[in-house]
Specification:
The longest helix has 63 residues. Helix 5 runs antiparallel to helix 6, helix 5 runs antiparallel to helix 9 and helix 10 crosses helix 13. The protein has three domains: 68 residues, no CATH class; 171 residues; 63 residues, Winged helix-like DNA-binding domain superfamily/Winged helix DNA-binding domain (Arc Repressor Mutant, subunit A), CATH 1.10.10.10. The chain contains 13 helices and no strands. This is Helix-turn-helix transcriptional regulator.
Amino acid sequence: MKIQKIYEAYDQMITLIGDNYNLLQSLGRFGINLGFGDKTVEEVCEEQGVDTYTFLALVNFSINGFKEIDDVDKLSVETLLNYLRSCHRYYLDFQLPFIRKELMQALDENDSLANLILKIYDEYAHSVHQHMRYEEKEVFPYVENLLEGKTSSLYSIDTYLRNHGNTDNKLRELKNIIIKYLPSDGLRNNLLMAALHDIYNNEEWLVQHTDVEEHIFIPAIRHLENRLRQDDVSVKISRMIHRNKAQESLSSRERDVVVALVQGMSNKEIADHLCISTNTVITHRRNIAKKLQIHSPAGLTIYAIVNNLVDISSVKL
C-alpha cells in the first residue's frame, strides 16, 4: 500500500520504503545501498554521496506528483545526471532484455503471431534506445559543459524539450494485441500474464521517468543556463568598463601632450617644451588617440576641459 505524504530530511529512510516499496528502484538509481539501519534520509544521503534536497524532490514528485520546488537553485544537477544515467542503464541493459525474454518464454514459437509480437516489441525497444542514446550523446554532455561554465549558442535545453516525446505507442499496441487476440492456456497463460504485468509496470516507470525529466531536470538546466547567461553578461560588462577605464587612463606625460596640443603647439614645439624627441611626441599622440578614441583637435579640447586638464578661459574656441 502506498502512503502519500511530503517526506522531509529528518524522516527515517526505512519509513519511506515501508510506505512506498517502489522507492527501492529509485534507491538503486541514486546509487544508495541498503543496510542503513534507522538513519534519516539526510544521514543516508550524506554518507552515500547523494544530494538530500534533490533526492527528496524526486521522491516527493514520484510518490505524489509534488512539483513545487522551493528553490530550483538548490537542485544538484550532478545528482540528477547520475540518476538519469543510472535509469538508462537499468532500463536498456536490464528491463528491456528481461521483458523480451519473458515474452519469448510465454509465446508459442509455432504461433504465427509470436514473431509479429516480438517484432512490435523490438520496434518499441529500438525507439527507447534511440531516445536515451540521444540524451547520452547530446543532452548530458551539453549539461556537463554547462557545469564547467561553458555555454552554447547552438543548443539549449529547450531544443531538447521540443524533441522530448513519448515512445509508448508501440507498447500500447503490443498490450492490446496480447490481451485481445492472443489465445493461450495453462502455463503459457500464466507466463503471458506475468510478462504483461511487467510491461504495465515498466510503462508506468517510463512515464514517471519522462515526467522527472520534464518537471525537474529540464527546469534545473534552464535555471543553470539563465544563471550562466547572467554571469556572462556581468563579466562582459565588467570587462567593457575595465577596458574603457584602461583606454581613458592617460599617463602624466600623455596628459602634458594633450594640454600642449590643445594650446596649439606643433609636434616640434611640444618636444622642445617637454624636453623629449619629436618621435616620442608622435608615439604619445598615437597612444592618446588609441586610448581615448579621439583624433580631432576639437575632441581633445573637449576632453581636456571636461577632465580639468585646462581651464576653458585659456582655450581659444
